Amino acid sequence: MTDTPKIELTGVRKAFGPKVVLDGIDLQVARGESVVVIGGSGTGKSVMLKCILGLMRPERGSIRIDGEETVGVGAKQRDRLMGKFGMLFQGGALFDSLKVWENVAFGLIQGRNMPREQARAIAIEKLAAVGMAESVGELWPAELSGGMQKRVSLARAIAANPEIIFFDEPTTGLDPIMADVINDLIVKCTKELGATALSITHDMASARKIADRIAMLYKGRLIWVGPARDIDHSGNEFVDQFIHGRAEGPITMELRA
Amino acid sequence: MMDFVAGVGRFFLAFLSHVGRLSAFTGTAVSHVVRPPFYPRLILRSVVEIGYFSLPVVGLTAIFSGMVLALQSYSGFSRFAAEGAVATVVVLSMTRELGPVLAGLMVAGRIGASMAAEIGTMRVTEQIDALTTLSTNPFKYLVAPRLLAGLLMVPFLVLVADIIGVFGGYIVGVYKLGFNPATYIARTWEYLEPLDVISGLTKASVFGFLISLMGCYHGYYSKGGAQGVGTATTNSVVSAAIMILIFNYVITALFFGK
C-alpha cells in the first residue's frame, strides 16, 4: 500500500512527573515528504523525536513506521527499525574517540558488520556528498569547526542510505551562511536518497527551505499543520507570533526572576 | 512533624528507586558481557587503560605501603621482642588486605572517575543516543568492555602491588632495620599460604567489577551538562570506595571468618 504513511503518530502523550510535555500528538508524514515541526524552546519537539526514535517511551498513543507499531517493541525489532533511520543531532554528537571517517562509517561497521575498508570508501563518498575532502576523514572531531561537525554529522546520518532522516535543530549555533549551506545539503541529500525527513527547529529560514509541510507544537499539542507555503497566512495567531518572533501575542514566555 | 515523616519517606523511596535502577543496570550490563557480539578492540583498549596505565600509581602506592608497614610493625613488635615477625606481617598484610584495598581505591580514583567522566560526557552530548540510532547497543559498546577489563585487570594490578609491596618491606627490612636478606626472604615465604593470595585476588576481581560498574552507572545516568558530569564523577569514586570497603569486609569474612 503506497498510501500508508511513513511515520504516523496517534494520540502520543509523554509526561515527566506532573509536567505533560506531549499531550496527544497526531501527525502523519508521507513517504518522501519533508515535515518540519516548529515551536519554542521546551515545547517538547526533541521529546517527540526521541519518542519516534525509541529513545523514550510515551505513556499513551501509537507510533507507526510503515504501518508497523513501534511503541513497546522488543530489542530485535527496534534494531531492525533503527536500520531505517538516520539522525542528525543538534550538537553533532560525533564520537570524540574516533576519527571523522570512522564516525561516518560507524553505523556500517558496527550496525551492519561491513568490512572497515569498504565502510571507509563509503564514508569518504558521503563526506564528498556534504562537500568535504577525503583528508578531513583523517581528522578528529575536535579539530573541526561547528559547521564542519554538522556536515560530518549529516554525512553519518545518510551513510547507511536511511529511509527516514531526523534532523534535530540542524542550524542551531551556525552563522547564517553556514546555516544555509546545511539547509541546502539537507534538501539535496534527502532528495537524492528519496528519504522521508522529519525535522525540528525554531529557525524559520531553515523551516521554509527544507519543509514540504510545517507543524507547530505549543504546550504539548500540534496547534497548526499545513503546507510550508501557507505559513505566512496560516490564520493562526500563535503561528503568526512565532514566525515573526514577536514578544507580544498569545504565546507568553514563562519568565521567573 | 509531618514534614519530617514525608522527608524520610521521600528519601526511602528515592533510595529504593536508586537500588532498583542499579540492579537493573547491573543485570543488563552483565548479560551483555557474556553475550556476543563482543568488541575485542574496545576490550583491549580498556585492558590497556586499566592494566597498563594504572601501573605507576598502583606501584608507588604499594612500595610505600610495604615500606611503612615494615617500619611500623618493627617499631610495634620490638616492644615485645617479636621483630622477627616483620616479614610475615608485611607479606600477609599486603596480599590479604593492603594490596587489594589500596590498589582498588587508587584504581577507583583513576579509572572509575575517568569512566564516569567519559560516559557522562557522551550522555550529555547525545553521543549515547547517537550510538542507539546507529544500531549499536550502548551497554555492549560502552559498558561491557569496561566491566570485563576491570574484572580481569585489577587482579593483575593487585598481584603486581603484592610483589612491589613485599619488595618495599624487604628494602626497609634489610637496608634500614638490618635484617639478613636470606632470613627476611625465608620468613616472607614461611607462613604465606596460597589462600592468602587467592583471597586477595578474589577481592581484586570484585573490586575491579565494582569500580567499572560504578563508573559506567554514574556516567550513564549523568545529566545536566558539565555540572552533572562532575557530580557523576564524584559519585562514582565515592560509591566505588564505599563498596570496596564494604565488600572487603564481606569477602574477608567469607574466607577467614569463623
Give the structure's gist in a few sentences.
Chain A is of the alpha/beta class and 257 residues long. Helix content of chain A is 35%, strand content 24%. With 258 residues, chain B is mainly alpha-helical.
Question: What would your notes on this structure say?
Answer:
The complex is a heterodimer of chains A (257) and B (258). By secondary structure, chain A is α/β, with parallel strands linked by helices. Chain A is 35% helix and 24% strand. In chain A, the strands form 2 sheets. A 6-stranded mixed beta sheet of chain A has the order 6-7-8-3-9-10, with helices on both faces. Chain A has a 4-stranded antiparallel beta sheet with strand order 2-1-4-5, with helices on one face. In chain A, helix 5 runs parallel beside helix 6 and helix 6 packs parallel to helix 7. With 258 residues, chain B is an all-alpha fold. Chain B has one domain. Chain B has 9 helices and no strands. In chain B, helix 3 packs antiparallel against helix 4 and helix 3 packs parallel to helix 6. The longest helix of chain B has 39 residues. Chain B is elongated, with a radius of gyration of 21 Å. The model of chain B has no long low-confidence stretch (mean pLDDT 93). The chains are: A alpha/beta (257), B mainly alpha (258). Chains A and B meet through helix 2, strand 6 and helix 3 of A and helix 5 of B.
| Order of H and E elements of chain A | EEEHEEHEHHHEHEHEEH
Assembly classification: heterodimer
Low-confidence stretches of chain B: none
Number of alpha- plus pi-helical segments of chain A? 8
The percent of residues in helical segments of chain A reads 25-40%
> How many extended strands of chain B?
0
Write out key terms for the chains shown.
heterodimer, A: 257 residues, alpha/beta, 8 helices, 35% helix, globular, B: 258 residues, mainly alpha, elongated
